[in-house]
Design a protein that fits this description.
By secondary structure, the protein is mainly alpha-helical. It is built from eight helices and three strands, in the order H-E-E-E-H-H-H-H-H-H-H. It is 66% helix and 6% strand.
């Protein structure tokens, strides 16, 4: 059972159940989403597009480090996690709907760290510190990117059941 699956358990639709209900038979700290509510969440935000967008950053940064990009990136802008669609959703509608889950806060924190690491790669590259930029790219950045992607995939799997 996946990480988000443990946090986002689904309940069969019951005419007397509200959008979300506590699962007394499970850990009382877990909130249960009924399938209709989960389906609504899936239509409000394109998780696949968020995953693809974050995967594109790997290519963009790789090309930057390989000298194959003429793109000018501002490290301060890259560090701002609320500028991308995922960050906007996490701080807005996503927080409203899923903010009570501990796993949601983990996704927010990993997403913020992703942007900090990407900005670090850009700043180091622009400062001519190519080896350090490569170390951050292959270390903290890749780790943060993988975590965001895995958490998004788990969220999608949990909501798509």
């Amino acid at each position: 059972m996946g990480f988000f699956s443990r946090m986002f358990k689904l309940r069969e639709q019951d005419s007397s159940s509200p959008e979300t209900t506590w699962a007394y038979e499970d850990n009382a700290s877990e909130l249960i989403l009924d399938p209709e509510y989960a389906a609504t969440l899936m239509t409000e935000f394109d998780i696949d597009a968020a995953i693809a967008s974050h995967e594109e950053w790997k290519l963009r940064l790789h090309n930057l480090l390989a000298g194959q990009s003429s793109e000018t990136l501002d490290p301060e802008q890259v560090a701002q996690d609320e500028h991308c669609p995922l960050g906007q959703w996490l701080k807005g509608a996503g927080r409203e709907k899923l903010g009570s889950y501990p796993a949601f806060d983990m996704l927010v924190q990993r997403h913020q760290y992703f942007h900090v690491q990407a900005a670090s790669v850009v700043a180091l590259s622009q400062a001519g510190e190519h080896e350090k930029a490569l170390q951050v790219f292959h270390g903290g950045y890749r780790h943060a990117s993988n975590q965001v992607t895995l958490l998004l995939k788990e969220l999608k799997r949990s909501l798509g059941r």
